């Protein structure tokens, strides 16, 4: 039974790859982030991760790319760095970790590191230290125009829950390039990491509202074809 299920999943993934993506966006990253660039990360910079687990590999296969996850850097006025993303670290962050859980209004215990989250950058690096990481730096002029709006736009997106790729009902939405439809987006209650970042960039005016956020993969935002106000992608 399990064998048939695995075969079915593989066939579905291959079908997605054929219908959803005709051109590979896989390009080897040849540049490395300098120490100065690493120390000067700022709000709006994008961070990419290459996960090699089952879901990460599924995204990499579908997009013909090494990047399976994406987030955004946020810098507080006091200089502290955070990563804004949709992720689930509840299985690796122990409840005993300071501030890892909270109690909701109905008494349920929820992880602060699951869903649409703001996670300390140094802690994020520890959680992702075994994976390949890369960055794209936002143009200084664009950064100056959006830096004061990022957090408020992030908070608006906190209404969403994380879309699990194991939820097959979501795959139809993620399968095709579709025209932007604000009403349909507002009806969603769950989003993936790439949908979150695209929504954030669209609401900040960095990306045009031409296509639905579900029309993109992390690797799409790794090239200047779509985001020309960012520098070339560089690995850590």
Describe this structure in words.
By secondary structure, the protein is α+β, with helices and mostly antiparallel strands. Helices cover 31% and strands 19% of the residues. The strands form three sheets. A six-stranded antiparallel sheet has the order 6-3-2-1-7-10. The protein has a two-stranded antiparallel ribbon with strand order 4-5. α7 links the parallel β8 (161-162) and β9 (190-191). The longest helix has 19 residues, at 2-20. The protein is globular and about 45 Å long. It starts with a helix and ends with a strand.
Instruction: State the major sheet.
Output: 6 strands, antiparallel
Strands, total number: 10
**Tell me, what is the CATH class?**
Alpha Beta
Mean pLDDT: 82
List strands and helices in order, with pairings:
Layout: H1 2-20, H2 35-39, E1 46-50, H3 54-63, E2 69-75, E3 81-88, E4 101-103, E5 109-111, E6 114-120, H4 121-127, E7 132-136, H5 140-146, H6 150-156, E8 161-162, H7 182-187, E9 190-191, H8 193-203, E10 234-235
Parallel strand pairs: 8-9
Antiparallel strand pairs: 1-2, 1-7, 2-3, 3-6, 4-5, 7-10
Helix pairs in contact: 1-3
Gist?
Helix content is 31%, strand content 19%. It has one domain (2-235): endopeptidase fold (from Nostoc punctiforme) (Alpha-Beta Complex), CATH 3.90.1720.10.
Which structural traits does this protein have?
236 residues, alpha+beta, endopeptidase fold (from Nostoc punctiforme), two-stranded antiparallel sheet, globular
